[in-house]
Amino acid sequence: MPASPKQMTLNLPDVDLCVFEWGVPGGQQVLLVHATGFHARCWDQVVAGLPEDWQIFAVDMRGHGRSGNVGPYTWPQFGNDLLHVCEMLGLADAVGVGHSMGGHCVVHACGHKAKHFKHLVLVDPVILSPEAFKNSTKHQFDSVQDHPVARRRGQFLTVADMHDRYAERPPYATWDPQVFTDYCEYGLVPSATKEGLELACPPKVEASVYMADFDENIYPLISSITMPVVVLRANPRDETSQEMDFSASPTWPELAHQFQHGQDVLLPELTHFIAMQDPGLVGDFIKSGAAAN
């Protein structure tokens, strides 16, 4: 697969979204959707292992990557944005792949317009138990400004500055080195206010997305999805903990069994960042999904 994708802009009613395309029109379609705080080019090493005659798209969701920083940053809004993307790209019988928040959004899109997909690969999709959506005490933070992610460093002089700061820290130290390089290289944009670069997903936007992760009870949509669905997940997180522990999985362990044709794949040797640690493994599940009838 060519290393450099084609970059395009999709003009949605209220925001411009950036989409990257690899491969050949008319080939097996794949749609890749990133996690909160990430961007489309985090999929580059997954794409590298897929057939060259496929047509592969990776989208920067609003507030991320090269897309517009226009709210609202709610999970239903992200899901509706993805429906627009599917229509504008002409997706049909695609393999839908989403990591974390991206997996939730792929389910949203498929549940509303199944014609776009033939198979789903959900990489630790942060779909909690049904009871979690009934919990009135959803967060310990009163506002976005109180969320610790909102206070993360957002400015760097160079890509190397960001790379050197985080390379030896968790969770990045466990990632495939080239995935981490892609994360840094394409996760920064020229700063609008200072010298150097800034995170393409501003810390307050990332915090806003985390604060909104209970906005949509997606289970009514899940029950309507008839195509095969694979759920990849790490060992489960302690449900009583309010810490953001990304060494474990926030996905409900019984999620796969809520789909009509769901397959649960537990990967205890990996963390929530499955695609970052083993992009080849994720690519293998995508290829298996494309080959299935």
The dominant shape is: globular
In DSSP terms (H or I, runs of 4 or more residues), the helix count works out at 9
Oligomer: single chain
Mean pLDDT: 92
SSE series:
EEEHEHEHEEHHEEHHEEHH
Strand content: 15-25%
What does this 3D model show about the protein?
- The chain has 293 residues and is an alpha/beta fold.
- It has a single domain (6-135, 213-291), classed as Rossmann fold (3-Layer(aba) Sandwich), CATH 3.40.50.
- The protein has an eight-stranded mixed β-sheet, sandwiched between helices. A three-stranded antiparallel β-sheet has the order 7-9-8.
- The protein has helices spanning 44-47, 75-89, 101-112, 159-166, 177-186, 203-211, 219-222, 274-277, 279-291; strands at residues 6-11, 16-23, 29-33, 55-59, 94-99, 117-123, 155-156, 188-190, 197-199, 229-233, 262-266.
Keywords:
single chain; 293 residues; alpha/beta; Rossmann fold; 9 helices; globular
Short recap of the structure:
The chain is α/β, with parallel strands linked by helices and 293 residues long.
Secondary structure elements and pairings:
Blueprint: E1 6-11, E2 16-23, E3 29-33, H1 44-47, E4 55-59, H2 75-89, E5 94-99, H3 101-112, E6 117-123, E7 155-156, H4 159-166, H5 177-186, E8 188-190, E9 197-199, H6 203-211, H7 219-222, E10 229-233, E11 262-266, H8 274-277, H9 279-291
Parallel strand pairs: 3-4, 3-5, 5-6, 6-10, 10-11
Antiparallel strand pairs: 1-2, 2-4, 7-9, 8-9
Helix pairs in contact: 2-3, 4-5
